[in-house]
């Protein structure tokens, strides 16, 4: 089958954090240019981070490097802050009351100026008010994550069942067959976006 063309839209790997929540995102983009440019991030309405962003006035975008601990992607990309403190097992600092991981290339602090409803997601737009670089490590691209996610996430099968991995967000479904009407509970794509492991 022809590969979905949207997978050729290049993007990076980030953690968006705000007071009370944080999660992995690949949908960060600089959308204006000035000394304090606007930066947008698209966050699924089902994510707790979306709820928290709506209550807060600031968020932080952290850039992940190729060397990032895969457990960070597992924790921040597949668990919810609704019932767990994702930062508990990792080194972090606090910036304006927002938790920020230390295992990153650097971070940007943004003041929310707008939010746009885009069906499944909301796009939060923030003005860059501060930033800090920790190192010059190479940033991880979403495409790099896709190619290396087996090692990064160490996908293992349960009771000899087949693992079906969502090629969009990495969610894993276990079962001998994947129902054709299956929809990814994390990102909503259909069964044709899943790969058998
Ligand atoms: C590689 C990757 C990219 C992701 N990109 C996004 C994204 O751009 N927007 C989004 O809302 N969720 C994205 N997610 C899913 C969230 O990180 C995930 O649903 C998380 O568990 C939400 O946590 P929360 O409930 O604490 O907000 C991505 C996950 C992965 C693994």
Report on the architecture of this protein.
It is a single chain. This protein has helices at 48-55, 70-78, 142-153; strands at 14-18, 21-25, 28-30, 38-44, 58-63, 92-95, 98-101, 106-118, 121-133, 163-166, 172-174, 194-196. The model has no long low-confidence stretch (mean pLDDT 94). It contains three helices and twelve strands, in the order ββββαβαββββαβββ. It is globular and about 50 Å long. It is an alpha+beta fold and 197 residues long. Strands 2-1-5-8-9-4-3 form a seven-stranded antiparallel sheet. The chain folds into two domains: 5-142, Electron Transport, Fmn-binding Protein, Chain A (Pnp Oxidase, Chain A), CATH 2.30.110; 155-196, Rubrerythrin, domain 2 (Single Sheet). Helix 2 (70-78) crosses helix 3 (142-153). Flavin mononucleotide binds at residues 21, 23-27, 42-44, 47-49, 73, 77-82, 145, 169-170, 186.
How would you summarize the topology of this molecule?
Elements: E1 14-18, E2 21-25, E3 28-30, E4 38-44, H1 48-55, E5 58-63, H2 70-78, E6 92-95, E7 98-101, E8 106-118, E9 121-133, H3 142-153, E10 163-166, E11 172-174, E12 194-196
Antiparallel strand pairs: 1-2, 1-5, 3-4, 4-9, 5-8, 6-7, 8-9, 10-11, 10-12
The site of flavin mononucleotide has 23 residues, from β2, β4, α1 and α2.
């Amino acid at each position: 089958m022809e590969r979905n063309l949207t997978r050729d839209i290049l993007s990076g790997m980030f953690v968006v954090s705000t007071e009370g929540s944080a999660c992995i995102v690949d949908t960060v983009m600089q959308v204006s240019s000035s000394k304090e440019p606007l930066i947008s991030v698209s966050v699924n309405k089902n994510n707790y981070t979306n709820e928290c962003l709506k209550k807060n006035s600031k968020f932080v975008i952290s850039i992940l490097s190729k060397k990032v601990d895969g457990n960070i992607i597992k924790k921040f990309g597949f668990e919810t802050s609704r019932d767990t403190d994702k930062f508990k097992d990792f080194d972090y600092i606090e910036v304006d009351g927002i938790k920020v991981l230390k295992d990153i290339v650097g971070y940007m602090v943004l003041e929310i100026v707008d939010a746009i409803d885009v069906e499944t997601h909301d796009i939060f737009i923030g003005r860059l008010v501060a930033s800090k670089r920790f190192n010059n490590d190479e940033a991880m691209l979403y495409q790099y994550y896709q190619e290396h996610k087996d090692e990064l996430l160490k996908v293992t099968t349960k009771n000899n069942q087949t693992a079906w991995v969502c090629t969009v967000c990495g969610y894993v479904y276990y079962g001998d067959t994947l129902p054709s009407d299956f929809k990814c509970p994390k990102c909503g794509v259909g069964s044709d976006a899943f790969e058998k492991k």
